[in-house]
Write a structure and sequence with these properties.
By secondary structure, this protein is an alpha/beta fold. Helices cover about 45% and strands about 25% of the residues. The longest helix is centred in the first third of the chain and has 28 residues.
Amino acid sequence: MKHATFRQLRVFDAIVRNGSFIRAAKEMHLTQPTLSMQVKKISDSIGLPLFEQIGRKIYPTDAGRALHDLCKEVFDSIARFEMTLADSKGLKKGQLRLTAVTTTEYFLPRFLGTFCNRYPGIDVSLKILDRGQVMERLRANTDDLYIFGFPPKEPDIKAMRFLENPLVAVAPTEHPLATNRNIPLARLLEEPFLLREPGSGTRILVERFFAEHGSRPRVRMELGSNEAIRQAILGGLGLSILSNYVVENAPGLTVIDSEGFPIKSNWYLIRQEGKQLSVVARAFCDHLARATDTPELMDWS
């Protein structure tokens, strides 16, 4: 191991987390031949194979799993050292790694903008992914913090509500129901609906809402992004239920005044149970606490 480099450990860790050389190469911004060469070098240093292929999937061998445990120890030690440095430098430098579900793209950059203006030396990495991909990173403990609209039911996480996220019924402005008031839910259900894909946080909350009212919407189409749904609504394909952040100030769309709406929900900040937050991550929690008037978030960090 004395011949292994830190970069080789990063490459190896990326392959294990992604379960794929292709995805790891994309994450590390390397070509696949370069990635494979780095793995070969570290494997030669150890004298044992690090991966085995079963079908189309790759898995770490016993030696690979032991090396991955070592990687996590090394990376954690470096993170603790970086926290000590950041404390000494008064947050003049540091790194914040955030991963959030797709709907956060409509409001999270605003919070990050004011945070970065306050701490211009902080390097912020933000990944906006679908719920399944965010879950993968959460389980791998890849980032400092995660943001969900519906907290996952995992045993080893901590969740803190920090912002309201009302879900509203949405239609094109020229729709016959657009100007009506207090529309009965039964009337709304006569319309075709456009919903997010199964498993998304919004879809989970929508299905729970209709189940509580003993009904089910008539789903015309399932789409994998909020922007696709917005365009489909404008195209007259149906109504939808979305976060108010998605539709506010969106031309051509209007919020319908219907029974049971808005559906109450919230945004949650998530981290692994027992994870020691860096001084930069704690500073972001404090910033978010002040910006959203959530003082308990300061104690949570």
